[in-house]
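Researcher: Batch entry, complex prediction.
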Amino acid sequence: MTEFEKALQECLYDLEQGDSNVDECLRRYPTYAQQLEPILLTSAYLQRGHEARPSDAFKARVRSKLVQQMYVHPRQPARSNFMFMRLAVGLAAVFLALLATGTVYAQGALPGNAFYAWKLASENAWRMVSSDPVGIDVAIAERRVYELIAVRDEPTLYSQALEAYLEVTERLKSEMDTQNKAQILTVLDAQVEELNQSGIVLPQIDQGVIPPSDEPTLTPLPTSTVTPLPILGTPSVNPTDLPQIVPTIQVPREPDIIPTIKAPPKIIPTIEILPPIP
Amino acid sequence: MTVRSIQTAYKDPPLLEEAQLIDEAKSGDPQAFAKLYDAYVERVSRYIFFRVSEELDMEDLVSQVFLKAWENLDRYKIGTSPFIAWLYTIARNLVIDHYRTKKDVLPLEEAIALPSDMEMPDEEAQTRFDLQAMRDALQFLTSDQQQALILKYIAGLPNDSIAKIMNKQEGTVRGLQMRALQTLSKYMREKELV
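Model: Structure tokens for the complex:
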């Protein structure tokens, strides 16, 4: 910036701030006074421009036109609410998408997996909304069989899977009536056979100890001690013998009352894991 | 008052209930917006008066500025910049669009007649002459130089607000103003206006 430009800028600033007028500025910079004068006068002259103002008639005409247009194009006051709703719907959609994805993913979870509880919860929801809970329980039992086979080499997980399987078989038993009895027993027999073929023995079912009684006796177990039972004989299942008997399973971790029919009072069921069949 | 004695830049008084009126207008109240129109129509009209040369265009442009403001009021955030600065931004863009689409701009000599709708104080012939001369002289500047001078000396805005309206740096605005004043002063001297 040249000296002249600095002087000009300073004078313009002083005029704007009201610190001096044109003549005072020119006296302060006598060297540049001749050049500064027309420029400073022009800047002062321009300030008279605010004296121009529209007539009342002009303002009224434009106002009338504007008001008319405002009523033709009314504003929507709920725009912020609309934005909020869009945000809420968006978040809900993301949540539902995550829920659906997680549920689908959880269906392949095995005991011990973080999603296994999600899987069980989704199965319960599935069962609650279904018009055929027995059919759903049969399908769930199939899943538990698959899980039992998958985790048979890991005792802790196996125990968890077995508990889940016993729970669903208990439920199936309670749902049994004259119409579906044969079907349920056939399915359970097939599952026992499948487990046997995988080297998994479920003693009570294997022995076919369930009498043909409609009212199973409830035998209380004294305590829930984990005492190994004597290894039972070679598992043998003959599906043709089963229609008259109901499979009964004793849950080892239930200390109070377990529905059973012909279980030894002092004996706690156990599971024998045989090595996989090559 | 003579030009030599002008000592302080003109500044419009602020509108005290501006924020409340804007809120009400945003909620769809046309009466609140009409009050904003009453408060700012003179300043917007003045800006457009010195930027365009045709009377009919001026009326149309002023109404368009306020209608656009009404339609886009949600975009204005209270407290970020003065409402009048936002109106000047709309006016600036409309004037630019106006000249971009309008091919048959009147020559300066044909646009000299002062619009009857611009009322001059005391109806003094000299004032009328001076204002029209100023309007004519501004036509010799570039569009940016015109805006930098009009917003500074006629609208009375500070340079930081002008820089925002023109979307330029403050230093660039100062440079535009100094060059514009030098160009304008030559023209004014030739016309013996200063």
